[in-house]
Amino acid sequence: MSFDFDRVIDRRGSDALKWDIGEKELPMWVADMDFETAPAIRQALAERVSHGVFGYSVVPDAWYDAYLSWWESRHHFPMEKEGLIFCTGVIPALSSAVRKLTTPGENVLLQTPVYNTFFNSIKNNGRNALECPLKLDGTTYSIDWEAFEQKLSDPQTTLFFLCNPHNPIGKIWDKETLGRIGALCAKYGVVVISDEIHCDLCDPGKEYVPFASVSEVCRDNSITCIAPSKTFNLAGLQSAAVYAANPFLRHKIWRALNTDEVAEGNAFAVTAAVAAFTKGAEWLDALREYLFENKQVVASRIKETLPELTLIPSEATYLLWIDCRALPKGGSDFASFLRKETGLFLTKGQVYGEAGAGFVRMNIACPRSLIEDGLNRLSEGVKKYRETYE
Question: What pLDDT does residue 91 have?
């Protein structure tokens, strides 16, 4: 079956957050795709709507079976049914975990630059977001192990948010690195919350490693957050899951989610997840190919015509991390300038922590024609920025 990812869908006027912008602006910011979701999911939802009754829902065995089968066949990681819990989103799960597993004033460790909403889940609950910047050697990010262990050893550090694969840098953490993370966190009694929401969006031929699959230590000292939302563009349906193999942590997160009332499924969230994980593989594989081609288009244009910018190589996600520090002023306000002068809306790197200063994040999950439009605006913006500040 072929899928038309080139078709431009007009999302203005649909209450879409991404497209709630100016008339002449082009949004390539929030992690939301401009493609229709898989046909099998749309059909399943249409059939559910046709039933016409939308009362309180339970989470059926089909939901558990869909997750278990997908992770075992797709990611070679068998999970137990009792370890899975439905929740309305990864961020609600993270916030619930912060409230349940830490106390006000304690530290939650982050490897920055990292997904900006992590900071909200921490700071809004009265905890400290403790940054451990990743090391950047040219275009390669790695962990500063000495700093990481030093921050873990602080008695006030009780929780670590792992982003796997890592947003915004698009890095897939390998098994050895994850194992070392797990061993250090266990050594200092720091629980790992692994956000794996982007795991199915690896480049063709690439595969991510579930943190809990690496070792018994990783498995027993972690809670994993997973969902079909990024993969199949279902964020608006509020459908996700958490997995905890350790019965103690499982009970803690189960109580947290239920106390916060974010563990009750709805008919559409469950229906979409089941359809995605049982019938969405072919669509996903085609999507991954298309996204990879989009990445190549962006990489070629930047390399050939925009020497002031450096694209960090990406292995996963549809989010590209661009180094703008060679621009005047270190590119510190380039994202704001770009939007004002060209209408291209990218996310400024500073929101991902101090280590993101001078970078921008670009969402390339859109038809190729919009990619070309965005690149033309990017080129125009670089030219105007240099003319303004040089």
Answer: 98
